[in-house]
Structure formats: C-alpha cells, structure tokens
Amino acid sequence: MWQWFFRLGSPKWFYELSGRWLPWLVVAMTVLLTIGIVWALLFVPADYQQGDTIRIMYVHVPVASISLACFPLMAVAGVITLVWKMKLADMVAKCAAPIGAWFTAVALATGAIWGQPIWGTWWAWDARLTSMLIQFFLLIGVIALRSAIESPDAAARACALLSVVGAINVPIIKYSVEWWNTLHQPASSFSMAEDSPFGPEIWVPLVIMIFAVYLFFVISLILSTRTEILVRERRSQWVVDLVAADKTQGA
Amino acid sequence: MFENLAFSSVTEFLQMGKYTFHVWSVYGLFAVFVTVNLYLPRAAHRQFIREQKRRALRDAQTAQPIEADEGRPDANGGE
User: Fold this and answer.
1) CB A131 within 8 A of CB A111
2) B42 within a domain of the structure (yes/no)
C-alpha cells in the first residue's frame, strides 16, 4: 500500500498516468456538460415563483459546491507536504489555489445575478455570502503568500499551514445556512416523488451538472499540475527527453 | 422528447421570461470560465515546451565553436 502511495508522489509517474486519462476525462466532461446545459436551458420547467431564473441554479450550485472542495484538497496536500515532503502534493496545492479562486468568484458572481431578481439585492452581508467572500480572500492570500516567499520549500510549508487553517472556513460556509437564519436558503432536499416540488425533472439535471463541473475542476487541475511538473523538473532527464521528442512545436 | 420543452418558440427561449439578462449572463460567464480555465493551462504547457526547445537549440549552438555570431550574444534566438 505504501509503495503505491509513494509512487503516486512521483511527478513523472503522475505526468504519464494523467496523460493517458485526460482524453477520457475530457470526453466524459463534454458529454455530461452538453446534456446538463441542454436539459437545464430547454427542458427544466420554469419555477412557479422564480420563473426562468431557476436555470441559474444549474450553474451556481455546482460551481459553488465544488469551490468548497478546494480548501480541503489543499489542506490534505498541505499535510502530505509537511509530513512526507512529497513534491507532487505541493504542486497540486499550488495549482488548486487559483482554480479555487476562480470557482469562488464565479459562485459569488452567479449568486449575485440570481439574488438580484429573487432577493431584490445583488449583495447582502448574509452568513453564506460573507463566508464565501472570506474563502475568496483566503485563496488570494494563499496565492500571494506563495509568490511573496522566495524559497520554494519555505513557500510550500507556509502555504500548507495557511491551507490547513483556511479549511476551517469550509464547514462554516457549509453550515452557515443552518446556524444563522439569514437570507440564503438552506440546501433543498430532493425527492423521487413525482408530485414533490423538487422532483427528478429538477434534480437529475442538477446532479449531471455537478458531475460535469467536478470533471471540469479535475481536468483543469490536472492540466496546470502537468505544466507545473515540467517547470519544476525541467532539469531532469525525462523532461529533457520529453521536450526533445515533442514533434508538435517548432523551436 | 420535444413535448417536454419548456418553451414554445425560439424567441420565448431567448427571452427567458423576463430574465433575459440574468439567465444569459450567468451562462455566458460560465462559458468564459470553462474556456479560460481549460485554455490557459494548455497554453502554458505549449509555451514551456517551446521555450525549452529554444533553450536546447541555443545550448547546442553555443557548445560549438562560434565564428560568425561572435560579439552578438543574442543572435541565436534570444527573446
């Protein structure tokens, strides 16, 4: 088991494995994203209260929920970096921060656009909204911290610590809608019953979109991690050979 | 399948009830978000390989005795 764990830490091994997986992940994401978007835009019935703004949910909810995966991922990678000094974990953590910042920003923006007609305001200092904004600033903080520290090892340790601390915000975001009774509604419970207000015709496309956006997050993270691997390992023989063997680019 | 469509005409679909701006700006933003986050890491990957190839070429050339390029350190493709 440990042998597998440490092999996973080898950047070369990850680079080769991810290169084989990427095309399949991209195909799966494209299929799910197409089905999800067509379903959400064309087939989901307009809500009796919210009208067609219900279609915003199919972008906002997947993006917002996956943005919450970022800090736990960075915290786990941070612990692996601190305990085992695994290079790959730090590369993943470094690449996850800007992607997480994008996800959080898009979740906030789509939430504001949805909130304007439904709540009558673009922004409120509601518990969920505020804790999401804090997540955004924490991610910007992690990115800034890394670029401020010159030594890569010290930067990796500092960012690992900040990621572990920042992960505390995630349960606060998750349960904010239950702990504080403010503007943002709690998560809806979906049901298989046909007569439920959240029947399958509402939540099946949502589940499809959540999977699609998850795949998008993973693909985007793999793509930037692969480049990060090449940059950090550029002096090792396998990267030199890989560059020399590349036929697609003229020098 | 098409009897379940939420709209009865293309105009109605484009209008999204009275929420034309809200719905389409969210989907537009999402399209930009997905495109940028797939394109940028790919572009960085290509850029890295291009730079490394250029560097390898430069190293190979400077390793040989320099004649015509003497005094012009940038002549081998410096950026």
Assistant:
1) no
2) yes
